[in-house]
Each structure stands twice: as C-alpha cells, then as structure tokens.
Specification:
With about 170 residues, the chain is α/β, with parallel strands linked by helices. The protein is built from eight helices and five strands, in the order βαβαααβαβααβα.
Length: about 170
C-alpha cells in the first residue's frame, strides 16, 4: 500500500526539518510549512493570535497535498497544537507516523546552531518548554509506526529507516 503522508513527529531539535529536507531531496513532497505560516501571517505574534484559523488552513493544505498523486508528502509536527488533526489524518490517508527522539541537551545544541527565524521555536526557553511538554504529553501516548533516536542513528540513518518503512508498506498486501 503506497504511503500518502509521512508525519515527522518530534520536539524542537529532533531533526524534523532537516530530515524533511533530506526526503525532499529524494523527490518526496516536503514543504517548509513553518516558513509559509510566518510569511502568511507576518509575525509569530499575529500567527498565534490567529492560530485556530491558521492551523485549519494549513491542515487542509496538507490533506490536499497528501491526497494528490505523487510521492509521499512529508509533514512535521510536535503533536501539541495539532493532535486532533493527526488523529484524523491517520484515519483518512495512508499515513506513516515517525517519532524522532532527542535528549534535551542535544535539542538545545541543535536549536542554538540553526538559523533564526525559520522555526516557530527559536530560543532556548521555548525549546525547553516545548521539549518538556512533548516528552510529557505526546511521546508517551501518541501512537507511532516507528520511533527513531536521532542521536543514536543520526539523520542519514533516520533517512534510510524512513525510506525502508515506506518501501515495506508499499510491498505489504
């Protein structure tokens, strides 16, 4: 069965965007949704003020992209603001949910090194807060198809694991 959507689920610094870009380099349909949201709404503050409207529009665009013909679409999420969307899309589309795990120390190192303004959580306090919330409320309960410790296997190893899972799903009856 052909996978329509790959959800990269993880805390800030877990490697979601980097892995998404790598999958995009392999021809998969990855969009930098955070950048598009910031561009559409003009600022983080305005986006947060219109969060419900912004997420509804984003989720419809993700559904439309994933449902259209082509290689898998890739969507990155912490699973915090869009838990209901994730619950629904797994039932609507052939979806592979991949959780990317990372320690808080490594997440902080990674977010500190990345370019500012490309993510909704750029500062150390936000990284800590979201990482803590993710590990307390998403990681222990959100069903996933595969969990990858990106510190242990690296992002190139994670790339190969995700591709292998999608290939395996395509061969399944």
């Amino acid at each position: 069965m052909t996978t329509q959507l790959v959800v990269l689920l993880g805390a800030p610094g877990s490697g979601k965007t980097t892995l998404g870009r790598m999958l995009g380099g392999r021809g998969w349909r990855f969009r930098e949704w955070e950048l598009e949201l910031l561009d559409t709404w003009g600022s983080r503050e305005n986006l947060i003020a219109h969060k419900t409207e912004a997420l509804a529009a984003l989720h419809q665009r993700v559904r439309d992209l994933a449902a259209s013909p082509g290689p898998p679409a890739v969507y990155e999420s912490t699973g915090l603001s869009d838990a209901e969307f994730l619950d629904n899309v797994v039932g609507e589309l052939r979806t592979l949910v991949v959780r990317l795990d990372v320690s808080l120390d490594e997440a902080r190192r990674r977010t500190h090194r990345r370019p500012r303004g490309e993510h909704l959580a750029d500062d150390d306090a936000a990284t800590r807060r979201i990482w803590n919330e993710f590990t307390a409320t998403v990681q222990p309960v959100r069903p996933v198809d595969v969990a990858i410790d990106t510190e242990q296997v690296g992002l190139h190893g994670a790339l190969e694991l995700v591709i292998a899972e999608v290939d395996r799903a395509a061969r399944a009856p």
